[in-house]
Amino acid sequence: MSFSSEVKEELAKQFGRSRHCQIAELAGILELEGMLDEEGKLVVSNENSLLQTKYGLLLQKIFGEKQEILQIMQTLHWDQEPYRSRKINHRRADGMLVQQTCCKRAFIRGAFMAAGSISDPNKSYHFEIVCHTLEQAQQLKELMEFFETEPKIVERKERMVVYLKEGSQIVDLLNVMEAYVSLMNLENVRILKEMRNSVNRKVNCETANINKTVNAAVKQMEDIKRIRDTIGFDNIPEPLAEIAQARLDYPEATLKELGTYLDPPVGKSGVNHRLRKLAAIAENLI
């Protein structure tokens, strides 16, 4: 089962306690996937079994056994034109339905159940809800922004897509929709990813430092051999000759270790200073 399906399976079991929240969630579903069938019944066009089941349960909770289409449309503050024309006018939901914070949550949950998807967090972070019109998309974007997320809108195949690509914001929106198990699963993936990235950064940094140290040692050996073969160590100051011979004797030693081989011992900065002088001498011999 995909991660998106897991989220929807969890959300299919979530229902607002209050009737107004249930109506808001129903609005989120029908605004995006509502349609009139050949018999004039108000149905959802998405054949997903989870959505179909939740749609039926919402109708049951809100209207009981008597589920007349005109009553449903009146509850959602729709006019009767769609019923007469057999066509749903996909537009912004009535603002009265999403005034309260709990209703905003429910509407977003319904919209996601109807037309949303979320990518496998092991591969990438991407959350989206596909809307029919820009007007719908802008309303959904505003509702998501109310919960301090930063969604964007893009047009795709004559539809408007509201999406998020930031992992932390997707976690926040799962919390908004009350998909708490999915939220924890996503957080676990994020933590593992961050740990791997942190380890990789440290390894890359250490590798770079090792390469830098090795390259510096190789250059020092080349400089020292050039001095030895060209003018000899007898023609340079004794402290420089001493460090030059130490580097030849201990090619893999660190600067700190090299200093311990001198008499008297010299600190890391002192060793580095002498090697720089040797490099300058070697440069003049080219």
From TrEMBL:
Involved in cell division and chromosome segregation. Residues 199-282 form the Sporulation regulator WhiA C-terminal domain. One of its GO terms (biological process) is cell division. The gene is whiA. It comes from Roseburia faecis. This is Probable cell division protein WhiA. Pfam families: HTH_WhiA, LAGLIDADG_WhiA. Belongs to the WhiA family. SUPFAM superfamilies: Homing endonucleases. Residues 105-196 form the WhiA LAGLIDADG-like domain. The keyword Isomerase does not apply. Signal peptide: none annotated. InterPro entries: Homing_endonucl, Sporulation_regulator_WhiA, Sporulation_regulator_WhiA_C, WhiA_LAGLIDADG_dom.
